[in-house]
């Protein structure tokens, strides 16, 4: 599913290390995508429907192209049933997620382009990221080379620094929520647990293996939980499994609170050091939360030699790339039965009022 890249004209690949490349781009810039949708008020019939690339509790994600446009750039349309959103009491949750996505734009985050709705469905129009999930890549490879783990971690550091600068905590880092684009870069997706928090919040949410101790203990938490989760992810990328695992969530929580971390022998000593600095129980001592914030992580010896300007400008590449042939290639995703969620029942006029304010002005 993934293969090592062969050097092509204009490209420099150095061993299995990170490299800088000037290869032709398959990605479309976020500026171009925003120009494609600028000034338009969309409805569902404005799109040609392609494959389903994901399904969830409320609906599904379809690859689409804008009808009547010479620009055939593929986009992702998230379709949600209003009746299910109401039944599961997720109206405010969805509105909050949309509100956050409308205010952010970053090269390592799946960017929101437009929102709209009809009588029975909600729609989010997003970038289409076609390289599959980091979860699939990790499952296929077993574990990642140190250089690749460093590459992905570096991009996440920059994304988290950006979100935290806006008082947004992500709270759901895990390989399943990290997409890989056609140029091999990370795109963080699923902001369902993201929240604007200036100090602390007390909501219990997230994946058990990635929960920081302060969440488990209901002590109130803030941006420090994202840096804890980064430590878990680096460990999992390098080992192929998370540091705290058990058959049931309670067993995982016990291991998290016990705090014993057993790094495999093949771990680079510098990676091990950073992991332990991120997985510190005391938030006042956890890296990412100290006086210099994310800069401490960027200057850690594991990242020695990293040019952070090149990372931010997407000029650094990993040694493994998704084997995608075109911008609308969906071969990296599982196959799903197709649906437009047209069977979604209409809701009452009173319930329609719940969705006032769903459509957001995109930054």
Describe the 3D structure:
The structure is a single chain. With 363 residues, the chain is an alpha+beta fold. It folds into 2 domains: 40-130 and 332-355, Phosphorylase Kinase, domain 1, CATH 3.30.200; 134-322, Transferase(Phosphotransferase), domain 1 (Orthogonal Bundle), CATH 1.10.510. It is built from 12 helices and 13 strands. A 5-stranded antiparallel sheet has the order 3-4-5-7-6. The protein has a two-stranded antiparallel sheet with strand order 1-13. α5 packs antiparallel against α7 (224-239) and α7 (224-239) packs antiparallel against α9 (269-278). The protein is globular.
Strand tally: 13
CATH C-level of the largest domain: Mainly Alpha
Q: Quick one: CATH superfamily of the largest domain?
A: Transferase(Phosphotransferase) domain 1
Tell me what the CATH architecture of the largest domain is: Orthogonal Bundle
Instruction: Tell the overall outline.
Output: globular
Major beta sheet, strand line-up? 3-4-5-7-6
Unreliable sequence segments: 1-24
CATH fold annotation of the largest domain: Transferase(Phosphotransferase), domain 1
SSE topology sketch:
Elements: E1 2-3, E2 19-20, H1 30-37, E3 47-55, E4 59-66, E5 75-81, H2 82-87, H3 91-102, E6 112-117, E7 121-127, H4 134-141, H5 146-165, E8 168-169, E9 178-180, E10 186-188, E11 195-196, H6 213-216, H7 224-239, H8 249-258, H9 269-278, H10 294-298, H11 308-312, E12 316-317, E13 321-322, H12 349-352
Antiparallel strand pairs: 1-13, 2-12, 3-4, 4-5, 5-7, 6-7, 8-11, 9-10
